[in-house]
Write a structure and sequence with these properties.
Elements: E1 2-8, H1 9-19, H2 21-29, H3 31-40, E2 55-63, H4 65-68, H5 72-77, E3 81-84, H6 96-108, E4 116-120, H7 127-135, E5 139-143, H8 150-154, E6 158-160, H9 162-169, H10 174-177, H11 194-211, E7 216-217, H12 218-228, H13 243-248, E8 256-258, E9 264-266, H14 285-302, E10 307-308, H15 309-319, H16 321-324, H17 333-338, E11 346-348, E12 355-357, H18 382-392, H19 399-415, H20 420-433, H21 440-452, H22 464-481, H23 488-497
Parallel strand pairs: 1-2, 1-4, 2-3, 4-5, 5-6
Antiparallel strand pairs: 7-9, 8-9, 10-12, 11-12
Helix pairs in contact: 1-2, 19-20, 19-22, 20-21
Length: 509
């Protein structure tokens, strides 16, 4: 697949710098590293040709030489064309967006016929360009740091998750960021890092293959790993999407696997592959998919709460091993679920790995990150909060969870220097210890919002009321950007939701 990459350097770098200076500098100084990730690891956008591989034929970086000249050598070494976009006004406004748009339109009509246009920018001004590319049947992939508009997100075929980009493309994994000087007893709620989980699963596979005199069924191993390895989730498989993807990430020496006949793992020096025998009643893939849909519907009907996707993934892995090996060719559990016709069921991916529920059942409804559904006396603002959640992406936590979250952030800021990753982990762990709602993604959403609004931790303004006010203002800004009307009722609901007084909601911007 022929691709062209356009990097709005000023936009991406400034967005990352608001989150963490170290992350921004790694993006600027090691473009070759994240370019390799784009080429070899980043998934292809929807409707890409089967078996396609990404070839980035054009690499263009647009930067202001007056501010970022020091990063030019790094992009030169990574094979980028560098287009200088100096400031043209006293406010520092550059012509980057115009340059990028003209170059994109130029390549759209180029005889090479580029299949994919990759845009690194959160600037919503590129929305019409993305829509034009779609009309011309070209694929679009976008990296937007911060809170891109709904229209911008919807206009892209693939939106690169910024957390995934920081973690995988820039190499900021949690274990690298943990301070080595602290020695504390591990919490019972601590989630093992993906590498530890993967290593534990690999040991189980290697031991099973060594101990067995015949090839080992993949379904049996997958079920055993899910049962025995703490932190393994069938919806993510330690960040590899599928059990097959997890196996392919290992160097198992002589050990091989095949997905034929349901899938087996074997050592060709000791094991013979099972011979294929005609089944009396062979099951077609379509029948298997129908069985998956029926299983999901039955689980949702049986449950009094929204059903976690991780639980469904484990159940489907045990019952439909052939499909679960690579999620029917979709590459991830999420894409597989989104390919199914589950109407009228709904999937909410915003919290804790996703849940599936029946919106027609009033006893279930949408849950917060902890699985709790009881808003108690605050239920009267749930409808408005749900609408705001859908428009802005704000976590649908209960007001009491938000009050606790801001209080815990305040306490953490008094005891530790702020670091996005470490602070997020500590706050998430405290929420769990106190039995409150809020996933790591929810916590990061709030922290990112505070940073994007210019909040600087450690300067004496980290009290819960200020944090709540700034988060409420961030939500207002996102709603107004999406043209949602904020009347008196909505304003009162926002103030109540985030624990702020209506008289002070506009302060502490």
């Amino acid at each position: 697949m022929k691709s062209a990459l356009f990097v709005d350097f000023d936009n991406v770098y400034s967005g990352l710098r608001k989150l963490d200076q170290t992350i921004a500098d790694r993006f600027a100084r090691q473009p070759l590293e994240w370019m390799n990730w784009i080429i070899s690891k980043l998934e292809l956008p929807d409707h890409a040709p089967d078996g396609a591989r990404r070839r980035v034929l054009v690499r263009r970086c647009y930067l202001n030489p007056q501010a970022y000249q020091r990063f030019r050598p790094s992009f030169n070494l990574a094979g980028f064309e560098i287009i200088d976009c100096p400031a043209l006004t006293s406010e520092g406004k550059t012509s980057t967006d115009i340059h990028m748009v003209l170059d994109i339109i130029d390549l759209l009509q180029h005889e090479t016929h580029y299949d994919e246009f990759i845009v690194f920018s959160a600037d919503a001004d590129f929305t019409p360009v993305l829509r034009k590319l779609r009309r011309w049947d070209r694929r679009t992939t976008v990296l937007a740091i911060g809170f891109p508009s709904a229209a911008y997100r919807a206009s892209a075929d693939l939106l690169i998750d910024q957390d995934e980009f920081v973690r995988n493309a820039l190499g900021f994994r949690d274990e690298e960021e943990c301070p080595a000087v602290e020695s504390v007893a591990p919490s019972v709620n601590t989630v093992p890092d993906p590498d530890t989980v993967s290593a534990a699963a690999r040991a189980i596979v290697e031991d099973a293959v060594k101990a067995s005199s015949v090839a080992v069924p993949m379904a049996k191993l997958a079920a055993h790993i899910l049962d025995a390895v703490d932190g393994m989730d069938a919806s993510t498989w330690a960040g590899h999407g599928t059990f097959r993807g997890l196996i392919e990430s290992w160097d198992l020496g002589s050990v091989r696997f095949t997905t034929a006949g349901g899938g087996v793992i074997y050592d060709p020096r000791r094991h013979a592959l099972p011979t294929a025998t005609p089944a009396a009643n062979p099951k077609s893939p379509d029948r298997d998919v129908d069985g998956v849909i029926d299983t999901i519907r039955n689980e949702v009907a049986r449950s009094s709460l929204p059903v976690p996707c991780s639980r469904l993934a484990s159940l489907l892995t045990a019952q439909f091993s052939a499909i679960a090996a690579d999620w029917n060719g979709c590459g991830s559990f999420r894409k597989f679920v989104e390919s199914l016709d589950l109407e009228p069921l709904r999937v909410d991916w915003s919290n804790s790995g996703g849940v599936i529920f029946d919106p027609a059942r009033p006893d279930v409804g949408t849950q917060n990150g902890n699985g709790a559904t009881d808003w108690g006396d605050d239920r009267e603002i749930l409808a408005i909060a749900t609408q705001i959640h859908e428009v802005s992406g704000a976590p649908l936590l209960r007001p009491q969870d938000y009050r606790a979250l801001f209080s815990i952030i305040e306490q953490d800021a008094r005891s530790h220097p702020f670091d996005l990753k470490e602070t997020g982990k500590r706050v998430r762990d405290r929420l769990r210890e106190e039995g409150l709602g809020g996933s790591r993604l929810d916590v990061n959403w709030v922290l990112r919002g505070l940073l994007m609004r210019g909040h600087v931790f450690g300067q004496g303004h980290d009290d819960a009321m200020t944090l709540g006010t700034k988060t409420a203002n961030n939500v207002r800004s996102l709603c107004l950007r999406e043209q949602m009307i904020l009347d008196k009722t909505t304003e009162a609901a926002i103030a109540r939701w985030f624990g702020t007084s209506q008289g002070t909601t506009r302060s502490g911007q």
